[in-house]
Specification:
411 residues; six-stranded mixed beta sheet; four-stranded parallel beta sheet; 13 strands; 35% helix
Length: 411
């Protein structure tokens, strides 16, 4: 079977540089390092990109997808809003602040981007079932994309996920299997299933299709740069789960520079974690290069990966760019969700509370330049994590009799 991956020509080991043919592989046979797509880009211009559709396929010439990808049944995510967050900026003392709001994607999280690329890889390899291990958002993105593409779906989650995320993953059909354990245990189970006849012809988007899937996060970098008028932000705050999103945004920025699509200007990358699952933040603060796994305990379940595969690479990027990795408590996450909502009308899920909370903490500590152009990511919709703000926020401000006197007394 011939495969069409557009400008992608090989899989390359991020550790030793060994190259392999494009296939459903994710680990180097020489050193067990992670594999990622390697490219031979042709000439790409801003005009070519601008002439494309208002979704991630405008960047098809930079992704491992066929030329005709936009004509195939897909969720067509991307081209989400970059919101000029003047109110939030004034509240935090930041002169120029933008929120990249990915809650506008088809299943209301950035995961639609990565899954869209994985679907094309699954088609290329003749897989009939789309699968994943998920902390919630990915499960919904996979089942929706499979339904649209005409594929079967079977996804695996920790059994204690938020009810809204479970409902979203189930409504699109397919099988949703809850496992009594952490995300890291779910992920290990999926790795075992790949080698079993039960998993034959299954595309696990974040395991055997990971080199393709992960490239979807680059489109965040492309969009941010294009929406800023083809320039890089001076500072960016990105949530850390596996760490892949952060590393691929950095890769996207570097590709834009190499292709001459943006000026080579310095940018600082800041990683954000919840204190209840902050192994990368802990390693950064301790000056370590190795990330010590932890058992997650946080309301930010979409970031609750205790053994993040890309953790060491996140540390490298934060240090290389002059950024940092920081964490915030669950209470700070909730406060940040409310702050973003009350200043900009954006209702973020807990991961967005983590990034905004870390942004606030970094500014107050003098570690983030309030004069520099800054972008903060919101990667999902707050309607998925309503439990995080339960209590006072889920009750009316006041309950009154239907009379003006009662209203006057209440206000």
């Amino acid at each position: 079977m011939s495969h069409d991956f557009g400008p992608a020509v090989a899989l390359s080991c991020r550790e030793c540089g060994a190259r392999y043919p494009l296939g459903p592989s994710f680990a180097c046979l020489e050193c067990f390092g992670p594999l990622e797509a390697a490219y031979e880009f042709g000439r790409v211009t801003r005009e070519d990109i601008a002439a494309g559709p208002a979704n991630i396929w405008r960047y098809r010439s930079l992704l491992p997808v066929p030329v005709d990808v936009a004509s195939k049944p897909n969720m067509n995510p991307g081209w989400t809003k970059l919101v000029r967050a003047g109110n939030l900026g004034r509240a935090l003392g930041i002169k120029s602040l933008h929120v990249k709001d990915d809650s506008g994607n088809p299943t209301h999280s950035f995961k639609d981007r990565v899954v869209a690329i994985a679907v094309e890889a699954a088609r290329n390899f003749g897989f009939h079932t789309l699968s994943c291990s998920s902390t919630g958002n990915l499960a919904g993105a996979v089942t929706a994309a499979a339904a649209r593409a005409g594929l079967d779906a079977c996804v695996f989650i920790p059994a204690d996920l938020e009810e809204a995320k479970i409902a979203m993953a189930r409504v699109f059909g397919g099988k949703l299997i809850g496992i009594d354990g952490t995300y890291d245990e779910v992920n290990r189970f999926c790795s075992e299933l790949i080698g079993d006849p039960l998993g034959d012809k299954w595309g696990f988007v974040n395991v055997n299709l990971r080199p393709y899937y992960a490239e979807g996060s680059k489109t965040l970098a492309y969009e941010i740069a294009e929406q800023l008028g083809w320039r890089l932000p001076e500072q960016i705050v990105i949530p850390i789960a596996s760490g892949s999103q952060l590393t691929k945004i950095d890769k996207g920025f570097k590709e834009l520079i190499a292709l001459g699509l943006v000026e080579d200007t310095p940018y600082k990358v800041f990683g954000a974690q919840a204190a209840g699952c902050s192994p990368v933040s802990a390693a950064y603060k301790a000056g370590h290069d190795v990330v010590q796994p932890v058992k997650p305990n946080t309301i930010a379940k979409s970031l609750a990966i205790g053994n993040p595969a890309d953790g060491p690479y996140v540390l490298d990027i934060a240090r290389r760019t002059g950024g940092a990795v920081e964490d915030v408590t669950d209470a700070e996450v909730v406060a940040a969700i409310k702050l973003l909502a009350s200043t900009e009308g954006i209702f973020a899920e807990t991961a967005g509370g983590v990034t905004v909370g870390v942004l606030k903490k970094l500014v107050e500590a003098g570690r983030l330049d309030p004069e520099a152009e800054t972008v903060v990511l919101n990667t999902g919709d707050g309607l998925k994590t309503l439990d995080a703000i339960a209590g006072e926020s889920s009750r009316p401000t006041a309950v009154i009799k239907p009379s003006l006197d009662a209203f006057r007394a209440a206000v």
